[in-house]
Design a protein that fits this description.
84% of the residues lie in helices and 0% in strands. The chain is mostly helical.
Length: 418
C-alpha cells in the first residue's frame, strides 16, 4: 500500500515533475534538431556540425537518463542487470547510510564543534534567563516530577522511607540527644519564657479547677478532721500554691525558681552521662518504633507528598512552580554572566555528548538502518526519488549540454586532423 505523501513531500513531487519535464523537453528538442539537420544535410554541408552536435547531445542525455532512472527503477520496465539499485539493494543501502551518518555526522568531535559554533550554551542560558521561558520549563519539570512519582510503587517508596527513618533513629542515642537539647534550651536564659508560661499555666489550672481538686483531696483527709477545718486547709493550700507559682513566674530570682533551673541543668547532665537514663531512653525509642502509628508514618508522609506535589504542579502560582522558576532563571543568569561557569558547562556538554555517542554508537547505526530496513523497497525508492530526484534531473540536463559540447569539439578535432 502506498503511504500518503506529507505536505512537504507533495511539494517535492511537484518540483520533481517540473524538473523531469525540463530535462525530457531538452532531450526532445535535441532529437528534433537531429532529425531536421539529417533531413536537410544534403542542402547545406554546414548542417553536419549541427547533426554531430545533436547526436552527441542525444547520447549524453540518454546515458544520463538511463543512469538516473536506474537508481530507482528498471528503465522502460526492462529487467536490465544493475538497475533499480535502491529497490534491489535497500537493506545494504540502509546499513551503509547508517554507518555513514554515525561516522561522519554523529562523532563526538563533530557534535562538539556544532555545539560550539551554534553557541548552544549561551543561547540556552539566555533562554533560561527569560522569566516566561523559565515558567514554561518549570511547569514541564513539575509535571515530570508528578509523572515520576506516579511511576513509583507506593509500597517500595514507603519501605525505603521506613527503613531510612529507622536506620537514622537507631544511630541516635535518645537520652544524650535530649540532654544536649535541654542544655541548649537552658543556656543564656532561653528557657525562661517556657518556664514563665508553664508556671502561669499551672497557676491558672489551680484557679479553674480548685473545687475539683478540693473534692479529690478531701477523700484522703483523716476521718477525725472536722469539715470546716479541712476546707480551710485545702483553700489555704491551693491559695498558697498559686501565690508561689505566680511569684516564681514573676520573679526570676525566686529561690524555688533557682532550684528548678538547677534541677533542669542537673537533669540535662544526667541524660548525657547516666547509663541508666541512656538505657531507659533506648527502651522508650524501641517502644516508639514499635507503635502502629509509627509504622504508618512513612505511608502517610509519601501519600501527603504525592498529593501536595500533584496540587502544586497543577497551580500556576504555586510555591513549587515559583521556586522552580526562580531556580531556572538564576541558573540562566549565572550561565550567561559567568564565563567560567559557561565554559565548564560547555565542557560538561561535550563530555556527555561523547559518552552518549560512544555508548550508543551501535544503536544510532541501528536506528537509521533499522528504520529504512522496515520500509517497503518500492516505497523507499519512491521517497528517495522525491528527495533527490529534482537535483538528479539537472544531471540529465548537464549530460545533454556537455554531450553536445563534447561532440562539437570532437568533430572539430577530426576535421582538423584530417
Amino acid at each position: 500500500m502506498t503511504v500518503p505523501l506529507s505536505p512537504a513531500e507533495q511539494g517535492r513531487a511537484r518540483l520533481l515533475v517540473v524538473s523531469k519535464r525540463r530535462a525530457s523537453g531538452l532531450l526532445i528538442v535535441v532529437a528534433v534538431v537531429f532529425v531536421v539537420s539529417t533531413l536537410l544535410l544534403h542542402r547545406a554541408r554546414w548542417l553536419e556540425w549541427v547533426q554531430v552536435t545533436a547526436i552527441a547531445s542525444l547520447v549524453g542525455g540518454l546515458a544520463d537518463w538511463f543512469a538516473v532512472t536506474a537508481l530507482f527503477r528498471h528503465p522502460l520496465g526492462l529487467p536490465i542487470p544493475h538497475t533499480a539499485i535502491v529497490v534491489e539493494r535497500k537493506d545494504r543501502f540502509a546499513e551503509t547510510l547508517g554507518a555513514f551518518v554515525q561516522e561522519s555526522f554523529l562523532t563526538p568531535a563533530a557534535v562538539s564543534e556544532r555545539l560550539r559554533v551554534s553557541h548552544a550554551v549561551e543561547r540556552t542560558a539566555t533562554w533560561l534567563a527569560d522569566p516566561d521561558h523559565a515558567s514554561e520549563l518549570a511547569e514541564r519539570v513539575a509535571e515530570a516530577l508528578v509523572a515520576a512519582a506516579d511511576l513509583l510503587r507506593d509500597e517500595d517508596v514507603q519501605g525505603v522511607l521506613d527503613a531510612l527513618v529507622r536506620r537514622r533513629l537507631d544511630k541516635v542515642a535518645l537520652a544524650p540527644l535530649a540532654g544536649r537539647s535541654l542544655r541548649q534550651l537552658t543556656r543564656e536564659g532561653r528557657h525562661n519564657p517556657l518556664i514563665d508560661a508553664t508556671l502561669t499555666g499551672l497557676s491558672g489550672y489551680l484557679t479553674q479547677h480548685g473545687s475539683d481538686l478540693h473534692r479529690r483531696l478531701g477523700v484522703h483527709s483523716p476521718w477525725w478532721l472536722p469539715g470546716p477545718v479541712e476546707e480551710r486547709m485545702v483553700e489555704r493550700l491551693l491559695l498558697r500554691s498559686r501565690q508561689v507559682l505566680d511569684d516564681m513566674a514573676t520573679h526570676r530570682n525566686h529561690p524555688l525558681r533557682h532550684q528548678l533551673e538547677a534541677g533542669l541543668a542537673k537533669f540535662a547532665e544526667d541524660l548525657q552521662t547516666s547509663p541508666e537514663l541512656r538505657q531507659r531512653g533506648e527502651q522508650i525509642k524501641t517502644e516508639l518504633l514499635g507503635q502502629p502509628q509509627f509504622r504508618t508514618f512513612a505511608a502517610t508522609v509519601w501519600a501527603d507528598t504525592k498529593d501536595q506535589l500533584r496540587f502544586q504542579a497543577a497551580q500556576p502560582g504555586s510555591e513549587l512552580r515559583s521556586r522552580l522558576t526562580d531556580i531556572i532563571v538564576q541558573t540562566g543568569v549565572r550561565l550567561r554572566d559567568d564565563p567560567e561557569l559557561a565554559a565548564s558547562a560547555e565542557r560538561s556538554v561535550d563530555a556527555v555528548a561523547a559518552m552518549l555517542l560512544g555508548a550508543f554508537d551501535e544503536e544510532l547505526v541501528a536506528l537509521v538502518s533499522g528504520t529504512i530496513g522496515r520500509w517497503d523497497a518500492v516505497e523507499t525508492s519512491r521517497r528517495l526519488e522525491l528527495l533527490l530526484g529534482p537535483d538528479l534531473q539537472y544531471i540529465r540536463i548537464n549530460g545533454t549540454v556537455v554531450g553536445a559540447l563534447a561532440g562539437l569539439a570532437l568533430h572539430a578535432i577530426t576535421l582538423a586532423v584530417g
